[in-house]
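dumping this here before i forget
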Amino acid sequence: MAGQQFQYDDSGNTFFYFLTSFVGLIVIPATYYLWPRDQNAEQIRLKNIRKVYGRCMWYRLRLLKPQPNIIPTVKKIVLLAGWALFLFLAYKVSKTDREYQEYNPYEVLNLDPGATVAEIKKQYRLLSLKYHPDKGGDEVMFMRIAKAYAALTDEESRKNWEEFGNPDGPQATSFGIALPAWIVDQKNSILVLLVYGLAFMVILPVVVGSWWYRSIRYSGDQILIRTTQIYTYFVYKTRNMDMKRLIMVLAGASEFDPQYNKDSTSRPTDNILIPQLIREIGSINLKKNEPPLTCPYSLKARVLLLSHLARMKIPETLEEDQQFMLKKCPALLQEMVNVICQLIIMARSREEREFRAPTLASLENCMKLSQMAVQGLQQFKSPLLQLPHIEEDNLRRVSNHKKYKIKTIQDLVSLKESDRHSLLHFLEDEKYEEVMAVLGSFPYVTMDIKSQVLDDEDSNNITVGSLVTVLVKLTRQTMAEVFEKEQSICAAEEQPTEDGSDANKIKAKGGWQQKNKGPKKMPKSKKKKPLKKKPTTVPLPQAKQQKQKQANGVVGSEAAIKEEEDDISDKGSDSEEEETNRDSQSEKDDGSDRESDREQDEKQSKDDEAEWQELQQSIQRKERALLETKSKITHPVYSLYFPEEKQEWWWLYIADRKEQTLISMPYHVCTLKDTEEVELKFPAPGKPGNYQYTVFLRSDSYMGLDQIKPLKLEVHEAKPVPENHPQWDTAIEGDEDQEDSEGFEDSFEEEEEEEEGGD
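structure:
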């Protein structure tokens, strides 16, 4: 049949429709997401924060070395070229002839529909005289006119036009492919095959292979897998890692090795400059043979980090390498925190006791080292050195003052304005205002803690083995906001009252200190510690009572036997044997009960550890998914010696300070702008009692601003499952059905016996 013939369109006009749609799908979203934002907005932001962050290294580097503008320019050129191509293709499509229009002979003859036969013949004669080939007319147009005349005058042609839309009858179906005509041309078939093979058999596999090779080298946080392996090995090897060892392991990252990271550089001058810095720094362990910690790249990174912490002046040729190394430190320390947490989870889930978990001190040292690297301070230096214009010489005047003992930033904040100004009298007015502006921008975070058991009828009742959820609400303020509140409180309290002005001054001075110095110390009269002895002394009397009962039972049986020896010797001997058998049996029962209890406790502890592991891993997965959806831009950190603008982030976790154990995994709070609510989950202890935990909030950028708050848990015995619990209804119904079936079988057997008897 003619309708089943396929005749492809070789004109290639449909290719422009396809290409226009394809370019539009790329250009429109790319313009929305990739069009460069206003460059003046960044300059305005930097200008607004100049008063506070003007002395920071990252601020000065950004002004001296502004970000290159070639990238936004290239983006604009590419996007504008894409729009030009899109408009050209749209214009091309608009000018393309519409070949798939409905055939209308009246339009060909320029007649209105419904014209009479006389009008059709008259119009045909006029057009024939004009377009006849013998008279110099257009042959194609004359054929169309003759075809239209036949469609309107000839009965068969008119019938074909009415039924099939064409005077010649049914035509073959024509399909236009969305490719240019030269691609389907047989002359170019070899060239097309070569291009196809090059694109899909060479270029595409190379691109996918290179992308895959790069992706498998990095973890989800863009840290080299080799670095994670190095950290895991040395953290497992060194259970309790002090600060020197931690710096050594941190510098062993493969990010600093030119062999694995092209951005890391190694210069011939390093062989001269690095030994000079080592002599200036002093104590560096160089004798141990622990690759890669003793490799040249690791030694260089360690020396540069130590010189940064000591705020030493280094040669200009090493400044760029030091900046590169410092930019990598926060992400590497976060990876080390993740490694320590994973090892703790593995240690709790392993049955082997040889697998020792890293200590809580190792985890906290990682967090402290992050603060030190951002601020450029050593471990035991004063947090006041984070402020501008306060150095070692000036610090002695502040910390060793006779009237004011200022050790922390909170102590400096708690002073009155007049006392603070007199304490910092060595600063000029302009410098003093800058110090106050910087101090006012420092964060002050408060924690509101609430512990509960979700998905339970009594959420406030914590039972053994239940899943405890600690809801922590973090509220961030600046020190400047606290200044205003404290000044208003001080102004109100300084008014004369009946109690006297001295008491008011003491309250005004000590109010802010009590908020920041952690839990208050108990008075001497309340320092009684009888509760600490209870857990160790309670099991001992119970064991003694059991032994005394057994001994009393044996002594009583022996006395009864002696009294009855004269009259009934046989009965006395029998009773003696019975009593001894009972005693031995009771001892066996007690031993078996203890073993069974011990086995149950071990099984319960294993189940709790497995549940704890699954819980912490699911929490980490949810945390990463949540952080990926939220913006991690919070507040810029004031850091005098850090080369990159750092955002203000925190770590939140629960620990047992007495046992030095980690209760919940650290939650990396990266979205705290004003307020943030965080859920910390962990299984309740396996034994009832009162437990004292501590909630830690540690900054990854500031020293001396960590928050500590106690957490008390009262764990009760789990409620027994009631006998008539709804979950047993199905079993009871099944038993009733079984009893009914057994009764039916019995009655059936009785009927058979009666029938046999009748026979």
